[in-house]
């Protein structure tokens, strides 16, 4: 048996998904499966079932700040995972918190819309989201989000690479564009680290829409946990992809 090491602590800042398919609840379930200690701060309350988001109400940015401060004042946070933020004020307060607490590993899942088409980030918050990218170590946009962040229309892997390079220039260390929203039997995720592109291929999993809901959240949470557990980025991506496939 491997020698015992201390369990790592990972904080998720995310929206509540009462169905536990996505959001904060999915993040916590993923952290538990990945063997890290879960901490969480709620950025928004949503009303949804397994198929559709009916309502979104953001938490005040001061309340979000208080939640994170209370945790960061007590715990050593080994990694921070950021999901839905809902408002510009929340995006800005998270950026402020990263600087204040000097979080070293910060993975941002650049959530803009739900799979059912509801905006989970107000449209006036995109500029602030781009600024937040500068304070992260990795971002995990899907192709729809990568289009919004880069201005590149994405229909193939070459366009995923172009978009990744533009998003990298916003100041992060790693961009992982996930390819699940493109057509095809093979799903390719593209990593750009400022030097090279790495492709991660997997077969497309056939599953119901409600089962696929939240796979992006699970991927970026598993990725964050794997990095906290000491994996290099490429290995962490493979671990996170395997985790998502097994969870379906
Ligand atoms: O899958 C994106 C997502 C993230 N966070 C919350 C959500 C959703 C999608 O519905 O509800 C809270």
* CATH topology label: UDP-N-acetylmuramoyl-L-alanine:D-glutamate ligase
C-alpha-based Rg, rounded: 17 Å
Question: What structural category do the secondary elements indicate?
Answer: alpha/beta
User: How many beta-strand elements?
Assistant: 9
Give the N-terminus to C-terminus distance in angstroms. Answer: 29 Å
Name the assembly state.
single chain
Strand content: 15-25%
- Residue share in helices? 40-55%
Q: Mean of residue pLDDT?
A: 95
Domain unit count: 1
Bound molecules: 3-hydroxy-5-(hydroxymethyl)-2-methylisonicotinaldehyde
Q: What is the count of helical runs?
A: 9
Characterize the biggest β-sheet. 6 strands, mixed
CATH superfamily membership, which one?
Ribokinase
What would the principal axes of the Cα set say about the shape?
globular
What is the CATH-assigned architecture? 3-Layer(aba) Sandwich
State the strand order across the main sheet. Answer: 3-2-1-4-5-6
What's the CATH first level? Answer: Alpha Beta
List the helices and strands in order.
EHEEHEHEHEHHEEEHHH
Low-confidence parts: none
